[in-house]
Write a structure and sequence with these properties.
Blueprint (H helix, E strand, L loop, with lengths): L1 H10 L6 E7 L2 E8 L5 E9 L6 E4 L8 E2 L1 E2 H8 L3 E4 L3 E2 L7 E4 L3 E3 L2 E4 L16 E4 L5 E4 L19 E4 L2 E5 L2 E2 L35 E7 L4 E7 L10 H12 L1 E7 L7 E4 L6 E3 L11 E2 L2 E5 L6
Antiparallel strand pairs: 1-2, 2-3, 3-18, 4-23, 5-9, 6-22, 7-20, 7-23, 8-9, 10-11, 12-13, 12-14, 15-16, 15-19, 17-18, 17-19, 20-21
């Protein structure tokens, strides 16, 4: 990871308006702000999956549906983890109840409890959206639905399923930006359905709106996991999903990436390495404590060496 950052610095890809910290072994935390093309505030976490002590965990199944909603900060504290970020889209929303159904494939500690699916929000989330899986030995990669199984809980790849998260779509595929299109006369194979509450189409894409965003990605060698958030509150205007993909490819060498739940769900929480207090590192668009969401991804790491 150090070599990756050095290469980026030498190439001039890393901008000056950022703070780079190494709060835990194998973890690089970047706080980045840009003034052009608009004011945006970002949090980027790079995790060396081969570093000592690195472990991941997704929200476990529970409750009356699939999971019990927790804020990302609550999940960080509950798991005694060092980093946590919001993950899946979920239903029902809005809802005063604690129980949630995750949209898409999910596995926690080897238990697959949510399958690939055709989502209700087909104006934003593609059918059988690929998932990112981190195996029990931290080998990571993108996995896809095996159509031979009706339950949607099997993948075509020969890999152990352990910690798996899905989003709305794969936005970077083998180093290329892959924002989905809407099905219309020009794009008959489009993966999205025009319409929805915003009247979305290829001329007004859900993916083109400026909003708070959360993304997760991998470098080409599968060794470095990247977590990304950008705010649409507290002076930050947000980004389109295409802008996120461009930035991750150009500045951080991301080879495959997924767009996760965003807007008011976008939250990055982290343990303060000095005080061990759990803190939200971004500015939530929902409320200061963050939204209670259907799933969160926790990363466990050991203290940085002095």
């Amino acid at each position: 990871m150090v070599a990756l950052l050095a290469l980026l610095a030498l190439s001039g890809a890393i901008p000056a308006a950022e703070l780079v910290q190494k709060p835990f072994q194998g973890v690089t935390w970047i706080t980045r702000s840009e003034a052009q093309p608009r004011e945006i505030h970002m949090q980027i976490v790079l995790v060396d999956l081969r570093a000592p002590g690195i472990r991941l965990k997704l929200t476990a199944p529970g409750g009356a549906l699939e999971t019990v909603r927790r804020t990302t900060l609550e999940f960080l504290r509950q798991e005694h983890a060092q980093i946590a970020v919001n993950a899946h889209f979920f239903l029902p929303f809005p809802s005063p109840g604690p129980d949630a159904l995750l949209v898409g494939f999910a596995a926690s500690e080897g238990i697959v409890y949510s399958g690939f699916e055709t989502p209700e929000q087909s104006y934003a989330i593609v059918r059988d959206a690929p998932a990112l899986n981190i195996g029990p030995t931290n080998l990571a990669g993108i996995v896809h639905r095996d159509p031979a199984f009706a339950d949607g809980k099997h993948v075509t790849e020969d890999t152990p399923l352990w910690t798996a998260v899905a989003g709305s779509a794969q936005i970077i595929t083998e180093g290329v930006k892959t924002i989905p299109f809407y099905a219309d006369a020009t794009h008959p194979g489009g993966l999205l359905t025009p319409g929805g509450p915003g009247g979305y189409s290829n001329s007004k894409s859900w993916y083109g709106a400026l909003n708070a965003r959360t993304a997760i990605g991998l470098t080409h060698d599968g060794r470095t996991l990247l977590l990304f958030t950008v705010d649409a509150h507290g002076g930050s205007v947000g980004m389109s999903v295409g802008e996120v993909a461009d930035l991750l490819i150009k500045d951080y060498g991301v080879f495959n990436a997924l767009n996760l739940d965003g807007g008011g769900s976008t939250t990055l929480a982290m343990e303060n390495p000095a005080t061990h207090a759990a803190e939200i590192r971004n500015v939530s668009s929902d409320n200061p404590a963050g939204r209670a969401v259907g799933s969160n991804l926790a990363i466990f790491a050991v203290a940085a060496k002095n």
